[in-house]
Amino acid sequence: xxxxxxxxxxxxxxxxxxxxxxxxxxxxxxxxxxxxxxxxxxxxxxxxxxxxxxxxxxxxxxxxxxxxxxxxxxxxxxxxxxxxxxxxxxxxxxxxxxxxxxxxxxxxxxxxxxxxxxxxxxxxxxxxxxxxxxxxxxxxxxxxxxxxxxxxxxxxxxxxxxxxxxxxxxxxx
Length: 173
Fold this sequence. Notes:
Layout: H1 17-36, H2 41-45, H3 56-75, H4 102-120, H5 142-168
């Protein structure tokens, strides 16, 4: 069984650096949406193996937090509260209830993606972050943030492949 189709554009093989990074990041964002397409809220909340709490809906919520953190808090230095996580529950994005829905999670995720695009727009890839630094005190340039975000999505899209296959047998790149 193959996964339902969604619009994904393969990144250009000859683009300049900025267009290449934007292309790959958008490709991986679209891949996560593709892995969630056509499923019910119950299916999206389903975990694969105990004791893991990993679910497709949890991954989307996690990526909302990640988009927000890297592009707005790190890159722009905005002081924002977490969307789902708390001091008492730092992994709250993965701790779902029956009230957690795809419609709400997708809306928040899409909003954070748009805000991330706005945060990066017009900035040089060499621009250094205004927000927090690394554990060793180093700042991040925008190129590093893009590369990290592509890595983050690629890793979690691998998880999404396994989760989707577990839910309904659907597989695909």
